[in-house]
Design a protein that fits this description.
Layout (H helix, E strand, L loop, with lengths): L4 H19 L5 H7 L6 H8 L3 H24 L9 H20 L3 E2 L4 E4 L2 E3 L10 H16 L4 H12 L10 H21 L5 H29 L1 H7 L1 H8 L1
The protein binds the ligand CNC(=O)[C@@H]1CCCN1C(=O)c1ccc(Cl)c(COc2cccc3c(C(F)(F)F)cc(C)nc23)c1Cl.
Length: 248
């Protein structure tokens, strides 16, 4: 059986996206499994809740920026991404990277007690009370819960993450056609993989998640904007590594 060159190319593309995800996933599943029941004590929770809005945002912004840097590495190793113009790479990352951080958060989520891995242990939404954006946290946890319910394999998570990033509908792309061709190849990869895993029913559920992500992230951008208005220094002092990463 000699697969047609296009099928061979699709399988190679699949494998390289999965490998990139493995190399840049920040936390290995085995590590997270081992820490699953390591919960914060009442005192530790109280300590987080006593932080000022600014302090807690700064703490989270650092974590998110670090997570986004792993996503940038993931994007840069998706075949074809480096071939895009610099501006288009940045456009895709500026909008898509937080969405991939959200998708990846589901790997660090424990649905049995609705806790997420944060600062070395698992905590619930109450940990983030001092952020002053309960609705965002509920939305973040709710999305993680729903993503967990799909029980994606790491390979499926890898391909789904690449589809979230390589989105030809992003505003002000210069070479939309090129992004479209990359996305089409990745869509063929995902459907090829779901067929192989005998899980075609997952296909439409994943595409529904893409639209949920978009609305969720507009809430994030709004919150981020609200926060940067009130605490301009923090955003500029913590976020620059991300932009340095985007330009290299
Ligand atoms: C397993 N851990 C993780 O996945 C995340 C990313 C890597 C590190 N990390 C955490 O430590 C973490 C885990 C769970 C939660 Cl709820 C948080 C706090 O999340 C946020 C607090 C403030 C703003 C957030 C915004 C906003 F608004 F900036 F866009 C957007 C997202 C999505 N999350 C925000 C964090 Cl920072």
């Amino acid at each position: 059986y000699s697969p047609s060159p296009s099928l061979l190319r699709i399988e190679e593309l699949c494998d390289s996206v999965v490998q990139s995800h493995r190399d840049t996933s920040q936390f290995r599943l085995e590590e997270l499994q081992a820490l699953r029941w390591k919960l914060f004590s009442r005192e530790e929770i109280h300590a987080y809740q006593s932080k000022s809005v600014d302090e807690m945002w700064q703490h989270c912004a650092m974590k998110l920026t670090e997570a986004v840097q792993y996503v940038v590495e993931f994007a840069k190793s998706i075949p074809g991404f480096r071939g895009l113009g610099q501006n288009d790479q940045i456009t895709l990352l500026k909008t898509g990277s937080m969405e991939v951080v959200l998708v990846r958060m589901s790997r660090c989520f424990n649905t049995e007690n609705s806790t997420v891995f944060f600062d070395g242990k698992f905590g619930s939404t109450e940990l983030f009370k001092s952020l002053g954006c309960g609705d965002l946290m509920v939305a973040v946890f709710d999305f993680a819960h729903r993503m967990c319910a799909l029980r994606l394999t790491e390979q499926q998570m890898a391909l789904f993450s690449s589809l979230v990033l390589i989105n030809p509908d992003r505003p002000c792309l210069e070479d939309r056609g090129r992004v479209h061709r990359m996305r089409r190849d990745l869509e063929v990869c995902l459907s090829h993989m779901l067929r192989r895993d005998n899980q075609e029913s997952l296909q439409h559920k994943l595409y529904q998640k893409v639209s949920v992500l978009r609305s969720l992230c507009s809430l994030h951008v709004e919150k981020l904007h609200w926060f940067s208005q009130r605490y301009p220094l923090t955003v500029h002092s913590v976020f620059p590594p991300l932009y340095k990463e985007l330009f290299t």
